[in-house]
Amino acid sequence: MTKRYSNYESFFALKPTSLTVDSGTINVIYGKSGSGKSTLLNILGGMDAPTQGKVMFENKDLYQLNDKEQSMIRGKRFGFVFQFFHLIPELSVYDNISLPTQFTKEPLEEKDIVTIAKTLGVEQRLTSLPSTLSGGEQQLVAVARALINHPDIIFADEPTGNLDSYNSSKVSELLETLCKERDVTLVLVTHDKDLIQSPDNLYQMEDGNLQLIRK
Ligand SMILES: Nc1ncnc2c1ncn2[C@@H]1O[C@H](COP(=O)(O)OP(=O)(O)OP(=O)(O)O)[C@@H](O)[C@H]1O
């Protein structure tokens, strides 16, 4: 696949790239600012179509599916964690965590929210608004929200980019451990190649080129 943001320019944010993500693996893509990491993550996560090429998910071309099918996959099969948390400020922590379950139509049980909040250590904050939480706590809520639907894949874009080193280690260790425990595939982009202790695959992105560094 490739990505050009403008048909009028020759600049490729993503040069011809091929990537296979195996189920249950921890994948880290590191690189400098502007190297194309978010571009690749957005394409893989069904958020932005490539200019050329396709993204296959369970033998289906993601971007050939209709809008409803694509939303179902993003909402039910994928989880997302972003640098700036993207919590809804007007909603309590409890309601933020339960948001993705609106897609599923499966009855949500209160104990599921409490259990995941406990796992992330934010159970004392369930009735609070996000603005009253520290950055680290907000990101833990975002991780809980990403996990609540038991997704197959979590896409994380600089999940610790806005955190101090203590919270950065806490969030990255929890993400790695929980994904491994739950057999969730993780695709994470970061500028810090050592963020995740033992990824299955470590890639570097440089000027729109993806290179496998370590398996
Ligand atoms: N929506 C857009 N329109 C035009 N150009 C874009 C757009 N998004 C990204 N770019 C350009 O594509 C290139 C890759 O950007 P991208 O955001 O993917 O890099 P990145 O490695 O994620 O950087 P950062 O760590 O700063 O987020 C950059 O040159 C950027 O300016």
From TrEMBL:
Give the keywords, sorted: ATP-binding, Nucleotide-binding, Transport
Q: Residue ranges of the ABC transporter domain?
A: 3-213
Q: Which family does it belong to?
A: Belongs to the ABC transporter superfamily.
Q: Does the keyword Transport apply?
A: yes
Matching Gene3D superfamilies: P-loop containing nucleotide triphosphate hydrolases
Q: Which InterPro entries match?
A: AAA+_ATPase, ABC_transporter-like_ATP-bd, ABC_transporter-like_CS, MacB-like_ATP-bd, P-loop_NTPase
According to its UniProt entry, this protein's organism is Proteinivorax tanatarense
PROSITE patterns on file: ABC_TRANSPORTER_1, ABC_TRANSPORTER_2
Q: Which SUPFAM superfamilies match?
A: P-loop containing nucleoside triphosphate hydrolases
Q: Please give the name of this protein.
A: ABC transporter ATP-binding protein
| Entry GO MF terms | ATP binding; ATP hydrolysis activity
